[in-house]
Structures are given as structure tokens and as C-alpha cells.
Amino acid sequence: MARKRKKPVERAAVPDRYAAFAEHPRFGQGPRVTGLDPKPSGAVQPGEALTVLHWHSPGRKRIPNTAVVANWRKQTFTVLPVTHYFDTARTCRDCGLEFIFYALEQQHWYEELGFSLDADCVRCVACRKIDQARAAQRRRYETLLHAPQRSDEESLEMAECCMALVEAALFSPRQLERVRMVLNATAATASSKLQKRREHLRERIAAFAARPAGPPR
Ligand SMILES: [Zn+2]
User: Who contacts 6 (Cβ-Cβ below 8 Å, separation ≥6)?
Assistant: First the structure.
């Protein structure tokens, strides 16, 4: 069955300020203007509606006219509920690119996914994906490592996870010893597919050893 293609989202021209921002797969580049621009309440007069904006998005980071009304009843709040979300400019912790943490993403995080209002967004979408993939690799590695028994294929998968985590500087290079042990232990495996994977792992170890020594991370 042919899948319906999603309609492309119409996007306005991106202001220069955002030209170098990391792109968001759904919202593109540049802020999503809503025209709503509430100011945080100072001293509130009786009968006046309170406006509370997120403390992780102070004034200098908020992008004007991008507010979305929050439903504070759906928030898991710790100290204060938030009445509006704003698109806010951030710098990615991993790649250093600027990106926008969109008001609609915040609404999704804090109202649909049940994230605490204390949860902050520190990575661009691309780096968030890499980070999630690494976390999954790490979980898989731990599962395989502690398995009472492993097939050669599972041992190789464990070694591949280990290699990737060393390459990502999440594991110490000392962990490569485990990769080498798996290579030795699976040397007798007859499957040509597994032999190819062993060969590829050897190449990765060699490439890692030959990498230019960068600044310590
Ligand atoms: Zn990034």
C-alpha cells in the first residue's frame, strides 16, 4: 500500500540571524512566529492574570512573538507551573551549533511526555539522536556483557558496541582489550559474515590507534 506523503510544511524565509542554526526536522530553521508575546508578571494586581515563563528560558534567550499558551494542568511541575512557552535560542552542548528549543517541543515534553519542568534541552536534534543511539548501544553492551552465555555473533555485537563507545570517547581506550579478546575468542567461527565483521573490527582498532592525538577530552 502506498503511503501518503506528508504535506511539506510551508516555511517563511529564515532571518539571517538564524541562518547558521541547526535545522529541526519538523520546524526547519528559524523561529515559529505566533504573534503572541506575553511579558512575565511582576507584582500582580488582584484580578490580573499571572504570566509565568520558564526559568530555563530567560529574557535574553526568548525569541519575541513565538509564545504558545501552556496548559499548566498537564505539567509535572516542581515549584511553579508555566503559563506560556517561547521558542528559545540554545547552543548545543555537543556540536556547538546554535539551535532553537521550540515552544511546541516544550509543550510536547512537559504536557504529553510527562517530563518534569526541570528537564532542559541541551542538544540539537541531530546530537539528541546520536546521544540516544549511544545510550541504546551502552544498554545493549551491558546486557550482552552480563549474559550467562553468548553466541559468537552476540560476542561480536558486544565488541562492536564497545568499539563504538570507545570511538565516541565514552569508554576508555583500555576497553579495546575486550574487543581484542572477543576477536581472539571468535577466531574459529566459520561463518563468512562473522569473519567480515571481525575484519571490519580489526580495521576500526587500527584506525583508532592511528588517529591523530587531539586535545584530551
Ligand atoms: Zn548538536
Answer: none
